[in-house]
Specification:
The structure holds 2 protein chains of 2 kinds. Chain A is mostly beta strands. Chain A has strands at 2-3, 12-15, 18-29, 35-43, 49-55, 59-62, 66-76, 79-83, 89-93, 109-115, 118-123, 127-135, 148-153, 158-162, 170-174, 179-183. In chain A, strands 1-6-2-3-4-5 form a 6-stranded antiparallel β-sheet, with no helix packed on it. Chain A has a 5-stranded antiparallel β-sheet with strand order 9-8-7-10-11, with no helix packed on it. A 5-stranded antiparallel β-sheet of chain A has the order 14-13-12-15-16, with no helix packed on it. The chains are: A mainly beta, B alpha/beta. The interface between A and B is medium-sized, with 26 and 28 residues.
Amino acid sequence: MKIAQDLRAGNVILVGTEPMVILKAEYSRSGRNGSVVKMKMKNLLTESAKETVYSADDKFEQIMLDRKEVNYSYFADPMYVFMDGEYNQYEIEAESMGDSINYIEDNMPCEVVFYNEKAISVELPNTIVREVIYTEPSVRGDTSGKVMKPAKISTGFELQVAAFVEIGDKIEIDTRTNEFKKRA
Amino acid sequence: MKRASRPQTCDIFCNVIDNYGDIGVCWRLARQLANEHGLAVRLWVDDLGSLAKLCPGADATLQSQHRRGVEVCLWSKNFPEVQPAELVIEAFACKLPQGYIEAMAAQQQNPVWVNLEYLSAEDWVEGCHKLPSPHPSLTLTKYFFFPGFTPKTGGLLLERDLFARRDAFLSDTLQQQQAFWRSIGMAMPSAETLKISLFAYENAALESLFDAWANGTQPVLCLVPEGRILPQAGLYFDDDAPRAGGTYTRGNLQVRVLPFIEQERYDELLWACDVNFVRGEDSFVRAQWAGRPFIWQIYPQHDAVHLKKLQAFLMLYSEQLSRSASQAVEGFWQAWNPDGTTSHSTKPSNDNGQVAGYSTGSGQAWLSFVAARGELDSHAQHWARLQAENNLALNLLDFFQEIGTMRAN
């Protein structure tokens, strides 16, 4: 069993009797110590997608799927194409890429996930390192990491980073939450 | 079987965690659904002692009792087999008894099951409001319902006659207002006295604020209902055991300790005062209906998440204020909700009731706040009228109908 808080794009869970692939998961803190996870998920049998919300500690049965190590190859709208070591290609729809789109780069190693022999999603490492290509100048004197500012990485994705981060810095990002972790 | 457009029955589940916020909201909602909309409401509470504080006359030892039109039931570990209601409300994501969930799933027509979430002004709330939450293993769907301050949220709890009662109170100086002051053992204060209610968690900013009031030019009467800030208020006057009825004076500040106040009387207190300090969720909403300037002490959360929520509300609330008034509100509210890194711990106090951190900015910030009172008064009234357009109980009932229609199609 896996709790909602730990689910991420690409995971497949059973809801009732139906296999659902998570397309997007957004975590928010509600009141007191409660949290909610808003999830966009797609039914793997009917292909229909829907938005849902769960308490962060709701439990799900996760379907363990076949995976294969691949590298990102190219984008052929609307499909992202990956290739394994034997030059087999696997296509994944942009909609099923989830937040991976924020970080995908040419030749990037990742895992393609299969359901009934069909590639349905891609999973990235939990932590990746990316270079900041633009951010406002550092705030002098603030090294606490609590003051945040926006920064852009090479894919164009923007996230909040600590105020001391500068252009050209390499940063660690948690791909599950899209959050800045530290300067690499 | 066709679902009625309005539910006839409603079960509300309340797990009391601490303070009176959970039960305060549930008790208010239960009475409103029962008395204004005619639903047969069962309120399941796991701590009847807390309810008894809000509802004098409630017996904390009874399994079941009827109070103010609501059937109040003890929610114990051995949950009885009961027929689920048509509308089921779990408050603040409390976990319903497994047997009850299975009974809901076994109904020919599933109840409309709603998780009533915490109140927040953050943007993400609109995106989650009314979203389904299909049960991971049963053929049953719960829906998340978020109270809030914008039309795309579930709105706020507001009784049908509240504004009429408030206005009658405010225009009836001779009888209702004097009766209120008599009921707390005081004569009606003079017009030049600034009347303030103070309902708060422990707060490091209190001392500086009391200093400002004591040393100010205007007489201040501060009414403090029994609660978590009382020991601190007592210590300011060198009394380590302050009690209801106690009166303390320093300079231009007079503090009067009130007994714990039930919900309806608390509204009168808010109406009778010029400025109200409130905390958590229920009193925060009531202060808005009072149409008076207020200061919110938000429930502290780990990692200072509450400060984001405070800021989100401030942004909405201050939108139509002048720049100076907006700065005054923001400055004082932030001084009253100190950042954990500088002056306040995440939990308001340790086990000994001692307040962590310190704050000296509240007294200074108060001066700007009180200087903006004229504008804040009219803004508070405007805000109350605006928020009244989005009534949570009505929205819940409309949502019930919406789900019924969706299922029928």
